[in-house]
Write a structure and sequence with these properties.
The protein is mainly alpha-helical. The chain contains 11 helices and no strands.
Length: 304
Amino acid sequence: MIDAAVAIAGALVGFVVGLTGMGGGALMTPLLVLAFGIPPLAAVSNDIVASMIMRPIGGGVHWKRGTVNWPLVKWLALGSIPSAFLGVLILRRLGVGIELQGMIRTALGAALIIASVGLVARPLLAARKKPGESQLPFYVKPLPTVAIGIIGGMLVGVTSVGSGTLMIILLLILYPRLKLSELVGTDLVQAVPLVASAALGHLLFGDFRFSLTGSILIGGIPGVFLGAQFSSRAPDYVIRPALIVVLLGSALKLFGMPNAVVAGCAAIAAVLGGLFAIRVRGAVKRAQRVAGGTPEPESSTPGA
């Protein structure tokens, strides 16, 4: 049976994904746990299965645009696909019950902290790129690229968070010469088999519930579409701080912090987020002046 409240939540999360290019796992999974009381394992399992259906949409767009680095996809997938399935098996080996659910909550909270740091680091790293860097020869670094795939895949298999924000940050550090649009497109395409591997593991060994996944998709698919339509109207440096506040607040709740502590930290994060938005806006304007034109905007395709 379809849950209307979950469908509405899926639509809201999907809209944010389409608007900002951020992966939905960092939002949908904690929302299911904190707002709807869904057990953490079930939240992770059903969010990943829903994501498996939604991921190819963004990947297909970048495929058509030619913004996918296929050699990079190959090496990332070599590490991420088996590690994502392994992450699910690790959960299976840990057993079931309160202890497992508690471990997933802790891992999810840690993943949200990492995602928050990634949201801060990503535009700053992109702003540091020098004009003309993307025209230099590109060489794949197999071993560190496979390592990034392993880290991202394991995190996705355990928490459903990490494929977008974390992996793009690591790729930005490893490949500063690559265009941001190619990084996003490459990550989206490699995430299709990665999420499929994790979804298969959760279908076999997780806590999959058809009605819950269906509710997420009923709202999430149109939400992503509408968010993408509006993506050009809202600047990234305004939306990003708001997401950071939400993610940090969710992480603290997952860690069991009192509401007063969560509210205080959220207020501090909101102030710092405002200062961060001002700084990034200034960095963008300086980059425009140095380049003598308008730099390529970050992709707003779902799943970035």
